[in-house]
Amino acid sequence: MSLPDAPSPRISDLARSRGPGGVEPSAPADYLAGLNPEQREAVETVDGPVLVLAGAGTGKTRVLTTRLAHILATGRARPWELLAVTFTNKAAREMRERITHLIGPSAEGLRWLGTFHSVAAQILRRYAELVGLKSTFTILDTDDQERVCKQLLEAANLDTKRWTPRSLSGLIDHWKNRGWTPEKLPSTEDFANGKGQSLYAAYQARLVSLNACDFGDLLLHNLTILSKHADIAEEYRRRFRYILVDEYQDTNVAQYLWLRLLTSSTGNVCCVGDDDQSIYGWRGAEVDNILRFERDFPGAKVVRLERNYRSTQHILGAASGLIASNKGRLGKTLWTEDQTGDKVRVRGVWDGEAEARLIADEIETARRQGVGYKDMAVLVRASFQMRAFEERFVLLAVPYTVIGGPRFFERAEIRDAHAYLRLILSEDDDLAFERIVNVPKRGIGDTSVQKVLQIARLSGVSAMAAVRDLLGSDELQARTRTALSNFVRDIDRWRQFAQTSTHWELTETVLEESGYTDMQKADRATGQTRLDNLKELTQSMQAFDSLTAYLEHVSLVMDLDRGDAADSVQIMTLHGAKGLEFPLVFLPGWEEGVFPSQRSIDEKGEKGLEEERRLAYVGVTRAKQDARISFAANRLVYGRWTSQLPSRFVDELPIDHVEAESDTGYYGVTPGMKEAKSRWDEMPTFGSGYSSPGWKRAQSFTAGRSPTDRPARHALIEGDGRLVATADPKAGSGWSKGERVFHQKFGYGHVTGIEGNKLLVAFDKAGEKKVIDTFVEKT
């Protein structure tokens, strides 16, 4: 008996609505193709708590986006039931674009995909009245926060030179990152001899009167709302069926508490991070958050991504050996199928200038070999190290870009334009009023402005409301009243114009009619540059639906998207390099006190040292093909010459993955050079020395061997930064008169006299000098 023919599909069946993402649960999961076994496990383990330990270059972003796509494609949740948070707008934007590519337009429904602060801002706008704000609150930037702090310090009759607004602002931000409101501030936290708590409370009250909050408040107010209103917390826990967190190792206490309040009883939370790349402790990040994940979520699944797709095996071996010295880590070992590539090169040089010459020369050599300038980066621990490289690059006409300079939105002209827009949007914004009421000059002096602000505070109204009242009185001079009247009339007219125009047209109109554009045109020195910036500002605004959305974006954005840079060498700090990669990476300044930073060790002890080591790990793993580490025997630090010891991190690198070479003259001892005893020999404890595996290997390597047995090149690095060599008249000499030599400082010359291990050399440009023979090379 034959089976009846299957009925033809109906048009309505073909056109019916699909599941989230437009993909049937039974449809082939093409988006899973190409994942390695560990990545696939991280993607498909969707129920219950999951910690994905993703090493550098292991495809973390792909796992995170594919996991989101998998949850949507299999119908486990709809787009608005997913909470996905990361740290930067750039990362959130990239995540959204990748998901859209995987599952189609339905990814646009991911309204809860963004940074911690942008998601928290959405929640706060809905429940602003529960913390004394209106839903139209403004978000203050750092400059505005410091101005509020200055007002409070002056009102408390405190010396603002001793107790600076910046220090108070920074301390309040620290307290908020810890999740502390004024009433919960520990007694151990203080400022201005016991006035910290009262100033903090006054600061919070002032922000409420301004209908404003700062960055820290976005999360702090969320904590207040969610902890005091169980029904609201439960509403969001029901809504967010799945929570995904990127860069979990960088979360601070407030972010951690916020996530715990939003995590449902099902525990469907997935945190992706790398404890070995937690390098932002100085701004509140707590590496302990990721280390205690399994205690916070019993039964959690831990997936380790260890296969690296970025770097060569020598680079990974060096980095893994280095980070293994840290005790506070969950542990993983990176590996790759790429067994090619050179060892990590470690080079010792005489001073910072020699280091700059070395790196500049190697950059030019790499350029001639076909490596683009943009494929090379110089990563430094501190900004003072940049000067020598910049000067050398300018001298050699090597194009370079310093990453991390003044940001676009921090420029004065941009702040002024934003202040106008903020005041148009909200008359309660007294900080915006104070900034631009006399910019351009309108004849409204500082005394008049302060009088208006004082009357506004005493009356409990905004500055704009106080001005309207004062215009009908004789409290101010007639000339000042006229100027203020014109200013109020302009603001009212622009607010009305905003109802019928786009926000970028409004901005152009305000800049023209206020006289701000003419003021810049009159400045022949920098006016044109500022006008170009304002033009860029109005163009960038067109990507946003409303003025409110634009101003919120500006407040939340963490860094300026510079787009594709020209073909230039990138110079930046190690902190700024996280997340980036380059074929060739130079890592200068690996010296004790510089890297690891002495300040970090002094302030945080072993915890600070471990973060410094994680920073070194991040630096090495930025290299795809070639990593080159260097250190100097002498360093000009903040105007003073200091003798340097190689960083302990140098000796912690596994010797099997390193090629070491010296130009300093104080290690790899040769005949005629007195063996220097390391200062670490008498300092076995943590506070002053170290006892790493690499150091022990170095000690065993030299034990029982005479100086003549040790190689002059490619030797293990050891020595003392104060004693680099001594004159030994009994030492044998392998030199003869007339030999051509090269000295790092004096250049080329020829030997004219020999006294033991001291040479008299007639240098071509520096004249006749007496030098130790280990400081010169035969040519």
TrEMBL record:
Protein name: DNA 3'-5' helicase
Keyword Hydrolase: yes
A GO cellular component entry from the record: cytosol
Ranges where the record places region Disordered: 1-31
Assigned EC number: 5.6.2.4
CDD domains documented for this protein: DEXQc_UvrD (cd17932)
Keyword entries, A-Z: ATP-binding, DNA-binding, Helicase, Hydrolase, Isomerase, Nucleotide-binding
Catalytic activity: Couples ATP hydrolysis with the unwinding of duplex DNA by translocating in the 3'-5' direction; ATP + H2O = ADP + phosphate + H(+)
Function: Has both ATPase and helicase activities. Unwinds DNA duplexes with 3' to 5' polarity with respect to the bound strand and initiates unwinding most effectively when a single-stranded region is present. Involved in the post-incision events of nucleotide excision repair and methyl-directed mismatch repair.
InterPro entries: DExx_box_DNA_helicase_dom_sf, DNA_helicase_UvrD-like_C, DNA_helicase_UvrD/REP, P-loop_NTPase, UvrD-like_ATP-bd
Residues binding ATP, per UniProt: 54-61
GO biological process: recombinational repair
Single GO MF annotation: ATP binding
Keyword ATP-binding: yes
